[in-house]
Amino acid sequence: MTHANAPLGRRRAVEEVLERGRPIAHVAAEFHISRATLSKRVNRYRHDGPGALEDRSSAPANRPTRLAAWVVEKIEAWRREHKWSARRIARGLADVHQVRCSVRTVTRWLDRLGLNRRRDITPDGEDLRRPRRIHARHPGHMVHMDVKKVGKIPDGGGWRVHGRGSEQALASKRTHSRKVGYTYLHTMKDGFSRLSYTESLDDERAVTTIGFFHRARAFFAAHGITRISRLVTDNGANYRANAFTQSTRGFCPASSSWQDFGLGKVGDGRVRQPAVDL
Fold first, then answer.
1. Following DSSP, what letter does each residue of 128-166 receive, concatenated?
2. What proportion of the chain, given as a percentage, has pLDDT over 90?
């Protein structure tokens, strides 16, 4: 960001050249700028006056691909009148007016117009969005997957039983072979029937998650759920991996991760996960 007094310093340098007749090279060295920069400012001052020394926008003067003014007006009108989303507006421009523009372009214009949030287009500023629950319509319609990282408990109890400074608590920190570590509870749950399948595994890598998915799918098939319409996960690295996506695509037509906000159904209190024998 340019300093507020920058135009004053530019004018002083230009006046040294034009009024006092000093060479551009000497003045540029004194003000610690290049000769080309000072020469450019001197020429601007000669043609346009003191206003030419103000900060200028770095945006290009001519943008051939910029949306026409009537398209921007149409975007604003549809947003105010119909409260359409950016995706709906982009589709309407393509279908009605044969104007091709991306959803991101419409979003940027809504942001510039101050209409990017729903509460900006309501009379009293009320937020019209209300959180709603996601309901599965039949078994296999919406299946949730999640991983829970749980600390193992050593034989005889841990520091909560014996105290932090006890011999039992310090024994697990002395040698690597005696460290307790963690276990990972991989769970798949059907959103309609609440049928759940959980395994205690050593990690949460993609290859481990893939193996668990196919074993859980076989468990579901044995209980009558032979088709999974939609798989809902969080945005963990194991679920976003290409290997996991390619492995589950043939069995789940609609797989989604962070796009869905109906998460938490696996990790809440309604799921009875089996105890893990450590």
1. ----------STTSSEEEEEEEEE---TT--HHHH-TTS
2. 42
